[in-house]
Design a protein that fits this description.
By secondary structure, the chain is mainly alpha-helical. The protein contains 6 helices and no strands. Helix 4 runs antiparallel to helix 5. The protein is elongated.
Protein backbone atom coordinates (compact mmCIF):
# COMPACT_ATOMS: atom_id res chain seq x y z
CA UNK A 1 0.00 0.00 0.00
CA UNK A 2 2.33 2.68 -1.31
CA UNK A 3 0.11 5.63 -0.45
CA UNK A 4 -0.67 4.60 3.12
CA UNK A 5 2.98 3.80 3.77
CA UNK A 6 4.19 7.07 2.25
CA UNK A 7 1.75 9.12 4.32
CA UNK A 8 3.23 7.39 7.38
CA UNK A 9 6.77 8.24 6.22
CA UNK A 10 7.59 4.73 4.99
CA UNK A 11 8.77 3.58 1.57
CA UNK A 12 9.65 -0.03 0.94
CA UNK A 13 10.46 0.00 -2.76
CA UNK A 14 14.07 -0.86 -3.61
CA UNK A 15 16.23 2.23 -4.02
CA UNK A 16 17.65 0.98 -7.31
CA UNK A 17 14.10 0.66 -8.69
CA UNK A 18 13.31 4.21 -7.58
CA UNK A 19 16.55 5.50 -9.09
CA UNK A 20 15.89 3.63 -12.36
CA UNK A 21 12.44 5.20 -12.61
CA UNK A 22 13.74 8.69 -11.78
CA UNK A 23 11.77 8.90 -8.54
CA UNK A 24 13.22 10.89 -5.66
CA UNK A 25 12.24 9.01 -2.51
CA UNK A 26 12.25 12.06 -0.24
CA UNK A 27 10.16 14.12 -2.66
CA UNK A 28 7.67 11.26 -2.97
CA UNK A 29 7.42 10.87 0.80
CA UNK A 30 6.89 14.61 1.20
CA UNK A 31 4.05 14.63 -1.35
CA UNK A 32 2.87 11.15 -2.38
CA UNK A 33 1.05 11.36 -5.70
CA UNK A 34 0.43 8.82 -8.42
CA UNK A 35 2.63 9.21 -11.49
CA UNK A 36 3.21 7.04 -14.55
CA UNK A 37 6.68 6.19 -13.19
CA UNK A 38 5.25 5.07 -9.86
CA UNK A 39 2.56 3.07 -11.64
CA UNK A 40 5.32 1.33 -13.57
CA UNK A 41 7.04 0.43 -10.31
CA UNK A 42 3.78 -0.90 -8.88
CA UNK A 43 3.37 -3.07 -11.99
CA UNK A 44 6.94 -4.29 -11.64
CA UNK A 45 6.38 -5.09 -7.97
CA UNK A 46 3.22 -7.05 -8.78
CA UNK A 47 5.06 -9.02 -11.48
CA UNK A 48 7.79 -9.89 -8.99
CA UNK A 49 5.18 -10.88 -6.39
CA UNK A 50 3.49 -13.12 -8.96
CA UNK A 51 6.80 -14.81 -9.75
CA UNK A 52 7.42 -15.42 -6.05
CA UNK A 53 3.87 -16.67 -5.47
CA UNK A 54 4.32 -19.27 -8.21
CA UNK A 55 7.75 -20.23 -6.89
CA UNK A 56 6.29 -20.73 -3.40
CA UNK A 57 3.67 -23.26 -4.44
CA UNK A 58 5.86 -26.39 -4.26
CA UNK A 59 6.99 -25.34 -0.78
CA UNK A 60 3.44 -24.70 0.38
CA UNK A 61 2.50 -28.19 -0.80
CA UNK A 62 5.22 -29.61 1.46
CA UNK A 63 4.04 -27.85 4.61
CA UNK A 64 2.21 -29.82 7.28
CA UNK A 65 -1.38 -30.38 6.16
CA UNK A 66 -2.86 -28.46 9.08
CA UNK A 67 -1.13 -25.18 8.15
CA UNK A 68 -1.36 -25.45 4.35
CA UNK A 69 -4.87 -23.95 4.02
CA UNK A 70 -3.94 -20.77 5.89
CA UNK A 71 -0.79 -20.23 3.85
CA UNK A 72 -2.65 -20.91 0.58
CA UNK A 73 -5.38 -18.49 1.67
CA UNK A 74 -2.84 -15.74 2.41
CA UNK A 75 -1.11 -16.33 -0.92
CA UNK A 76 -4.41 -16.10 -2.81
CA UNK A 77 -5.73 -13.08 -0.89
CA UNK A 78 -2.53 -11.10 -1.43
CA UNK A 79 -2.58 -12.04 -5.11
CA UNK A 80 -6.17 -10.78 -5.32
CA UNK A 81 -5.14 -7.51 -3.68
CA UNK A 82 -2.45 -7.17 -6.35
CA UNK A 83 -5.11 -7.75 -8.98
CA UNK A 84 -7.16 -4.94 -7.44
CA UNK A 85 -4.13 -2.63 -7.59
CA UNK A 86 -3.71 -3.50 -11.27
CA UNK A 87 -7.44 -2.91 -11.88
CA UNK A 88 -7.02 0.52 -10.26
CA UNK A 89 -4.44 1.42 -12.91
CA UNK A 90 -1.57 0.58 -10.54
CA UNK A 91 -2.58 3.52 -8.35
CA UNK A 92 -2.19 2.55 -4.72
CA UNK A 93 -1.58 6.16 -3.72
CA UNK A 94 -5.08 7.61 -4.00
CA UNK A 95 -7.02 4.33 -4.11
CA UNK A 96 -6.98 1.49 -1.60
CA UNK A 97 -7.01 -1.97 -3.14
CA UNK A 98 -9.54 -4.25 -1.51
CA UNK A 99 -10.82 -7.75 -1.86
CA UNK A 100 -14.37 -8.77 -1.17
CA UNK A 101 -15.48 -11.11 1.55
CA UNK A 102 -16.44 -13.60 -1.15
CA UNK A 103 -12.94 -13.50 -2.64
CA UNK A 104 -11.46 -14.14 0.77
CA UNK A 105 -13.80 -17.03 1.48
CA UNK A 106 -13.03 -18.66 -1.89
Amino acid sequence: DLGEDARAGRLYLPQDWLDGAGIDAQAFLADPRPTPALGGLAARLLAEADRLYRASEPGIARLPADCRPGIWAARLVYDAIGGAVAANGHDSITRRARTTRGQKLR
